[in-house]
Amino acid sequence: MAPVLRTRVDTRSEAFLSNRAALLDALAEIDRLQAEVARGGGSGNPEKDARTVARHRSRGKLLPRERIALLTDPGAAFLELSPLAGWGSDDALGTGLVTGIGRISGVECVISANDPTVKGGSQSPITVSKGLRAMEIARANRLPLVSLVESGGADLTKQAEVFNPGGASFKNLTRLSAAGIPTVTMVFGSSTAGGAYVPGMSDYVVLQKDAARVYLGGPPLVKMAIDEDADDETLGGAEMHARVSGLADYLAVDEPDALRIGRDIVAHLGWRKLGPGPSAAPRPPVHDPDDLLGIASADIRIPFEAREVLARVLDASEFDEFKPLYGTTLVTGWGHVNGYPVGVLANNGILFSEEAHKGAQFIQLCNRLDVPILFLQNITGFMVGTKYEQGGIIKDGAKLINAVSNSGVPLITLMMGASYGAGNYGMAGRAYDPRFVFSWPNHRIAVMGPKQLAGVLTIVARQKTEAAGQEFDDAAFAPLRDAFEQQVERESTALYATGRLWDDGIIDPRDTRTVLTLALGAVHSAPVHGSDSYGVFRM
Prior knowledge:
Blueprint: H1 14-39, H2 46-58, H3 64-71, E1 79-81, E2 97-104, E3 107-114, H4 125-141, E4 145-151, H5 159-178, E5 183-192, H6 197-200, E6 204-208, E7 213-215, H7 219-226, H8 232-236, H9 238-245, E8 250-252, H10 255-267, H11 292-295, H12 306-310, E9 320-322, E10 330-337, E11 340-347, H13 353-369, E12 373-379, H14 386-390, H15 393-405, E13 411-420, H16 421-426, E14 436-439, E15 444-446, H17 450-467, H18 474-490, H19 494-499, H20 512-523
Parallel strand pairs: 3-4, 4-5, 5-6, 5-7, 6-8, 11-12, 12-13, 13-14, 13-15
Antiparallel strand pairs: 1-2, 2-3, 9-10, 10-11
């Protein structure tokens, strides 16, 4: 048995209570935003959204999350991904698309569902990106993709931003099929123009009678293009496609029937996971996960102990630490999450050369053992300064990034604090293709901290001015510096990041173990094999 992590957290301390209050406030805002997305409509105006949803229901239609609830197994968790995509942009909050991982007939699947109450389910640029991310998760983790379609196609007001990237959706459907990953599409309404290729390129297609409309060009376009008068049903109705064109494999009488057929299709796939799965019996942590709210620093400039987090996430709070006396600002070791074995890299401060060496070696060991790796990010970056540059911090940091880049086992990243500079890269940030990235609400991400960035801007401006033989006016430059610092502060928040799909969602720290369990279950649908091939390590 591995040692049990002890705790030194004082749950009555001022710092703990202050952190807890701040994170609860942040979570309340996230809950409010998620409730806004779930109610439908997409306008942000409750009264207007209510009218839109009422019109949708008056047609006998369900909302996307209601469809998902009927499709997935009773009582099974649904891990919704990027629910606040589009935050801070001119796209609708949530972008009119629900994506996530749910269990259908006992099989973990990626589910993608249009919300037709949001601009008719039309696709904005961020909608496209969100849909492509769901497909990538299905491909990387070998999960069947189930699409619940009711969409007006591209948002024509943004067609220039949608058209080119949107084409990858159809390419990805065929590549999933070619890889032997099933694709199932159920159409409950419009699926027109390019959207018609979603059912056209899926393995299994269910169309709802008297509701589904699938055609490359609707009646108005047909009239304009070839002067033909055609009605919806004759041109692209569900019964026509079931009896005449052959596009539909199944004809459903209503929405519940379509979802029942979808469940039957998944049940008949005979789908089996190829990963090893849990290697031990699940055991809850010894220490209370509720404490995570007070452990995580609301002010990310204040460090906190990574082992206190692990003590509330890992099974039985047991952690077999690797190299505990070397490179002490990077915590590495092995544990389990709900029975799944994991290797852990967790930040306890800035990265030095020793931490880079230790992390690179540990990643190689996890790959040798075929064990997924969990990265817990709270990092301001690699150490800078003459001493460290001369000591080789660049080539040492490159070793860690090399190991992360070429790792073959699944990587899962949790942003539990700061994520600045190359520290983001060395700890498996989004650009390094972790299978999943989740954030706590206190998370901040940028090239460096706002004050540091503003300070660098000031130094560069001063040097440029003085090089031109002029005197630098600090007072005159101050408003520009302050405005830049405020801009970086706004663009560093967890909400800003999740709105741009830099993560797969902001989670309540208390739910970390549950979310990681669902993510680990997903990655074990595919084989878990380590790599023994790395780029050249600059020694």
